[in-house]
Design brief:
Layout lengths: L1 H22 L9 H20 L9 H18 L1
Helix pairs in contact: 1-2, 1-3, 2-3
Length: 80
């Protein structure tokens, strides 16, 4: 049961990262408050990764790295 709950949380967080990353492409002046809050939360979550892996060629790879790490954790947990 705890592994299944962890899997659901990891899946939800993965989708949050994907959707919120896509929302960053909306111009700031046309975003509403919930979108801005989600982007702020995502920035806080990704900040530790950004400190280790800076943008490469102007491309922020931290969302992709976060998703890869989450998927690895999920695989390890489900493999137990």
């Amino acid at each position: 049961m705890p592994v299944k709950l962890a899997h659901l949380l990891i899946e939800a967080l993965t989708w949050f990262i994907i959707v919120t990353t896509l929302l960053t492409f909306i111009p700031p002046h046309s975003r509403n408050r919930p979108i801005n809050r989600a982007i702020e939360l995502l920035d806080r979550l990704l900040e530790p990764i950004r400190k280790v892996v800076p943008p490469i060629g102007g491309v922020d790879l931290s969302p992709a790295i976060a998703i890869i790490v989450l998927q690895l954790i999920d695989k390890i947990l489900r493999g137990l």
